[in-house]
Specification:
single chain, 357 residues, alpha/beta, TIM Barrel, binds flavin mononucleotide
């Protein structure tokens, strides 16, 4: 079978992508404890680039050393010393014609004090995540302003290291998602309350990145279009967020779903059908003009092709499919689809990550 849509080139902002397959961010814990890209993580990404994917979005890269640690050995974009290591990793991907975005991340309440030297974790408000079970301290207004600068610095470091763009992680219940959602944002200062106040931190980050990195430097924002928790963001709220973010000049939206408290809607077990949440990306795409990337529990190229043909999204995110088989795209494009080793949704990948492995 020839996958006409899947294998056709596309673009994000002015950036050319050789096909419609995106490997979304996946934490793999392969950097070193200082957040530097190791040879192992470079080789891991290089293998996926060799396998033909159009765009790789790296795992969560922390923008804040004090409270922003998500996994013990994650990438970091907080200091100039991270640049040469990142540069080597990025060029090992780009030599195969695959583009790279660095994902900028802060976990907010979805982390553990053990990862930040025993300090109390921070969040927009004192609302405990039922999964991590730790009560966060509410960030001061000054701390929020400082985090804006740290996200912008992270983007500058990524760009200096040669990244083709950045993705701001505002999904999965992490810090920026916590600001967007009335479920977790009960603030009364300029970063809470009204819709515009809840989206303010993201707007300041986007404006700052575009100012420092140039309007042509692509910026994607990842959203959980439905948090799947009582009192959380639902699809109509996310349509409004998506349209507002588009007006700030972002270049793509990456649509996912869920927070830690609804984790099976982020990383689905094998019992979920492929494409079960396609209504989310589909509705967002109808309401914006910028490209939409979407994960949809995709296991095979036929489903990916069908989602693109149906107009659910402009780019398909295939995450675990690339852990199971780095050559997913190469096999699909050379008539060897049946040889693709498929993700079975056992969730062992995420379980391993949670064990710090
Ligand atoms: C091991 C693992 C780590 C992940 N880490 C991240 C991450 O760093 N950032 C992110 O936005 N999503 C992360 N995710 C979610 C994936 O990007 C993706 O949305 C999810 O796996 C569903 O897509 P899939 O069915 O194609 O795998 C992770 C998923 C897995 C399995």
């Amino acid at each position: 079978m020839y996958y006409e849509h899947l294998l056709s080139p596309g673009s994000i902002g002015g950036l050319y992508l050789k096909n419609r397959v995106v490997m979304p961010a996946m934490g793999v814990n392969l950097a070193n404890a200082n957040g530097e890209a190791t040879e192992v993580i470079s080789r891991y990404y290089e293998e996926r680039a060799k396998g033909g994917v159009g765009l790789i979005i790296t795992e969560i890269a922390r923008i804040d050393e004090e409270y922003g640690v998500g996994t013990p050995n994650q990438l970091s974009v907080t200091e100039g010393r991270h640049i040469p290591h990142l540069e080597r990793m990025i060029s090992s991907i780009q030599k195969y014609g695959t583009k790279v975005f660095i994902q900028l991340h802060h976990p907010g309440r979805e982390t553990k004090s053990a990862l930040i030297g025993g300090k109390q974790i921070v969040a927009p408000s004192e609302v405990m995540c039922k999964v991590t079970g730790e009560m966060p301290r509410a960030l001061t207004t000054e701390e929020c302003e400082s985090l804006v600068k740290k996200f912008i610095k992270g983007a500058v470091i990524a760009k200096t290291a040669g990244a083709d763009g950045v993705e701001i992680h505002a999904a999965h219940g992490y810090l920026l998602n916590q600001f967007l959602s009335p479920y977790t944002n009960h603030r009364t200062d300029k970063y809470g309350g009204s819709f515009h106040n809840r989206i303010r931190i993201l707007s300041e980050i986007i404006t700052g990145i575009k100012y420092m990195c140039g309007t042509h430097f692509p910026v994607s924002v990842r959203l959980s279009a439905d948090e799947f928790v009582e009192g959380g963001l639902r699809l109509p709220d996310s349509v409004k967020i998506a349209r507002t973010l588009e007006s700030y000049g972002i270049d793509a939206l990456n649509i996912s779903s869920g927070i830690y408290e609804s984790a099976t809607t982020i990383i689905e077990p094998g019992s979920y059908a492929q494409g079960w949440k396609k209504h989310l990306a589909s509705e967002i795409r109808k309401n914006v003009k910028i490209p939409v990337i979407a994960v949809n529990n995709i296991k095979d190229p036929e489903t990916a092709e069908a989602l693109l043909e149906e107009g659910v999204c402009d780019f398909v995110g295939i995450g675990r499919g690339h852990l199971a088989d780095p050559y997913f795209v190469h096999k699909a494009s050379t008539g060897r689809s049946k040889e693709i080793r498929k993700c079975i949704g056992c969730l062992n990948c995420f379980a391993e990550l949670n064990q710090g492995r």
